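Appendix C reproduces, verbatim, an entry submitted by the partner laboratory led by Prof. M.T., so that reviewers can inspect both the input and the predicted structure.
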Amino acid sequence: MAVRLVLVGYGYWGPNLARNFSKAKGAELRYIVDLDAKKRERAAEEYPFIKVVSSFEEVLPDVDAVIIATPPKTHHALAKLALEAGKHVLVEKPVTTNVEDARELAKLAHEKKLTLMVDYTFIYGDSVRYLKTLLDKQELGTLHAFQFQRQAIEFLRRDVNVVEDLMTHDVSMLVYWLGEKAAKPRRLTAVGKSHFIKGVEDEAFAYLDYGDLTVTLMVSSLSPVKLRKVMILGDRKMAEFDDVRVAGKVEVHEKEIKGPLEAPATYMDFVVQCNPGSTIIPYIKSREPLANMASHFIDCIGSGKKPETDISFGLVVTDLIERINEQVKGSSSA
C-alpha cells in the first residue's frame, strides 16, 4: 500500500517537493496545504489530480505522513501536531529554530515510534555520497582542513539569515562526512554582517578548530559570482566539490604534502616537498538529490529503518548552527 502524504507549504521549496513526491515509488501525494490563496491556485493548476486545501488539521486523519515546507518558525508546532496525531514527518531544514524545540520533537518521535526525518538535500546528492566513501576509506590520508564557500546574489529573506538558510547546507555535509566528531569543535569563532535588512545577516564567516583539523565556512547572499564549493585537504590527496558545475562536480587532486616542510632552498626543492601530482575526475552517476531523498523517506517509513538524516543528525546540525549564529548575531549588532 502506498504511503499517503500531505505537503504543507507551497512557497519556495514546496513545489520541488511536490514534483518529487508525486513521482516517488510507493508514495501517494493526496493533499497540498497552503494558507495563501494564490499559492493554492498555483498548486491546483500544476497538480489537478491532488486536492489543494487551506486547513492542515482537516486532512491530517486521512494521511500516513506529513511533509513540512513552511517558514522555519512554524516547523516545531506543525511537526509536533503531526507526531501527536501519529503521523511520520519530513521537515525541511532547519528542523526547528533552536535545539530545545528539536529535542522535544526527537523525544516525541521516539515515544511514538515514528519516522522523523530532516530534508538536508545535499546529503542525498551522489557527489556528496561519493566523497563520503573516499573519506571513510581514508583515500585522502590524514585530513587537515575543510573549506566551504557558498555565495551568490540571492533573494533576501526576512525570516532567516544566511547562517540558517545557506550555511546549514554546509554544516549538514560536514556532519555527514565527519560523523560524531563534527559535534565537538575545540574552538568556534564566527562573525557576520547585515547590509540591507536590519537584524538579518546577509554574509557570515565561521571557523571551527578540531585540533588536528580545521573547518572554514563562508556564506554570502551578495556576491555577483555564484559559488557552491568545498575543498577537502588531506596529506595524500585533496578533493574538490563544485556543485555549480553541470558535470565533473568532483575532482581529486593527487597533491601529496611531504611534511613537516622546511624552507626550500630552490623552487625545485619545494616541488619535491609538495608533489603536484595529477587530477582525476571520477565518473559519478548524477541523480536528483531530492528524488533520492524522497525515495529514502518512503523506504524508511515502510521498513522502519533509521533515516540517514534523522532527528539525531538534525540535532547536531541545529546545535552547531545555533552556536555559530549566536556569535554572528553578537558581531553583527556590535
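The chain has two domains: 3-122+290-306, 123-288+319-333. Additional entries are available on request from the coordinating office.
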